[in-house]
Write a structure and sequence with these properties.
heterodimer, A: mainly alpha, rod-shaped
Amino acid sequence: MTVDPFVDTLLNVTAFAFIGFLIWLYFKPDQE
Amino acid sequence: MKNPLLIIALAVTGALALWGLVDTAGLAAFASAAVGVMFTSRGWFIMLTVSAFLIVSIWLALSPYGKIVLGRDDETPEFSTVSWLTMLFAAGMGVGLLYWAAAEPVTHFALIRDFENESRAAAAARFITNFHWGLHAWAVYAVTALVIAYFGFRQGCPSLISAPIQKVFGPVAWTRVVGWLSDLLAIVAIAIGLGGSIAMGVFQVQSGVETLLGLEQAGLWLSLVVFAVLCLCYAPPLLVDLGRGMALLSNTAMAISGLLLAYILLAGPTHYIMNGIVEAIGEYFAAVVPHGFKTFTFFDDEITGWFQSWTLTYMVWWLAWAPFVGVFIARISRGRTIREFILGVVLVPSLFSVFWFGVFGGLGFHEMLRDDVPLLHVVETNLDNTTFFLLGRLPLSGLTSAATILAAFLYIVTSVVSAAFVLAMFSSGGDINPKVRVKVVWGVILGALGLVMILSNSIDAIKAIIALGAMPFVFIVLLLMVCLLKALKREDLR
């Protein structure tokens, strides 16, 4: 199946961003 | 609005059901196109996610966190290990296993034999089926159930998908929004997933009735009759609490499945089946982890299409079911340590799946490869009938077919009743005694979604619609895993 390159990039970038967000959440220091 | 989540969840699922009823083909086409785009662009992400769940599960079981009790430190398990394991089997059993028991390995075989000789194709088909139903599926369930159990029993959170997010990151703006969306997406994923399960169960029961009564593919009217009887059967338990009555129904279905399994093993080609199972265990454990990262990069559209409509669909499917099965697994696992929990939830049901497909698939391959029975033709022309066709190859087929129909029927009734309960609980702020009218409304919505999927009359359309509902939930389960890991970091392990 062919996906529009813009949609493809968008879907992948959101996935990268989400992985980045999770890594940031994991290492973010707790606020007491 | 007293409960906006309930109203919006009902509106979303109700609108989807209405769309499906008005324009079934349109919904199916939209779902297939949207899921096709998602799977093409984000296939790697889904495989990475399920592999991460498996690796994190194994790591948790082996790490010092494995000693943490899902409850107070001095708490002991609520159920004995034997009954706990039996209940885990029950969680994993369902109409899907009955439906795909022989149909799935034979379907994969039909494709792979174009590229490999028959014996290698059969082994590959067996491996891929076990991969779909094995450790990765159970790791998805295990992580979700572990999050629900850990935060519920150890941190005193309500049984809501949003609870761990707010507990770990505090009640700030983004956790409120993401938490609310998580509850909504969990509800949507469960409702649509269950609609698909109802349709599959109805097709299976219908096909069994056709076989028993000698009807030539009766078509939609029989599906609708089965569906109507199903609705009549699941309505009373939603209105009145049947207590142990529901457990009795579920245990009966499980006992029938167990007896069927034993019967096929003993009445069928026993040594052939056992040879296959032992071989399958070795093949499976030797290759399962690398296969979790396989995305078929260098293959053509036929293979990538197959990968999307099977492997990716299954993985997303398990994610859709995770909150539903997770609530059940969590509820029966109070007092277990994380190590026991992972070993029990990930390993034991996976081995059972290998055994299950080994028996049904083993009989299928035996009939096809040794006796030249036209099973491939049955799978290609009347997939719903595969199990009954195989039962017809053994003695007492009338009895075993009737038992399969009964088991499939009981599985759907118990699934709808428990799903209506979990949906009502999620949409009532985690209330473990949700109102009867909320349960009934969910029962109606589940029925409507089931009807939509029946009207689509295509197993591929059903798979696409389920995947569409489940897709956003991938992100939520990953977020839940991070919540768990973060909370565990705060545990005092001394």
